[in-house]
Each structure stands twice: as C-alpha cells, then as structure tokens.
Amino acid sequence: MDFAGFDWDAGNREKCSKHGVTTEAIEQLFLRGLIVLPDEVHSQDEQRFRAIGRMADGRGVFVVFALRQRGTGKLVRPISARYMHEKELKRYEENYEAEEAPGLRKR
User: Fold this and answer.
1) Cβ(6)–Cβ(70) below 8 Å
2) CB 35, CB 51: distance < 8 Å
3) pLDDT in tens, 34-54
4) Helix or strand or coil: residue 89?
C-alpha cells in the first residue's frame, strides 16, 4: 500500500500527542515499516487500520489511522497513537508476520 504523505490538523495532533507520541515520531514510524491490520470494529464511516512498529530506539508504538484521498495521492491520517508495553508488542510480532499484513510505503 503506497501513500503520498500525512494528513494532520489540530484534532489528530492533539489526540496522538495525548499519549506522548509526537507527529514526528509517528511519521518516522511509517517510514521505518509497520505491521498493518484492518480495524473492522471501527470502520463504520471509513476504513480504518491498526498498525504496530518499533521506533529507532526500540519502543513499540500502536497507531490507528485512515487513508484519505487527496488529489492523486493517498494520505495517512493518524487518528490515535500510543506506546505499547513490551509484552503486548511481542504478542503482536509473534502473531502477525509482515507477509500476512503488508505495511505502507511512501511514494
């Protein structure tokens, strides 16, 4: 899945930073590679996804996001983000291999 950039505004910046994850950290996470899974429970109005990945320092991050079409490209719109507990992150990594849940690539 390719994307062209990020869709930020005051609302999603505030919600993501509420748990200490900066916009810069989220963007770097998407560029590093993620395990991406559909979020069917919260996809009533638009398709949402759950993503997990590790920051450069090894910390695990969980992000909920949607893809928004803007012009000719898709933008990642982070909805919420938080740091994960190591036990929780290991469980995800053991259960979902990258081949099963392809990540996003920035064009």
Assistant:
1) no
2) yes
3) 888 888 776 677 889 988 888
4) helix
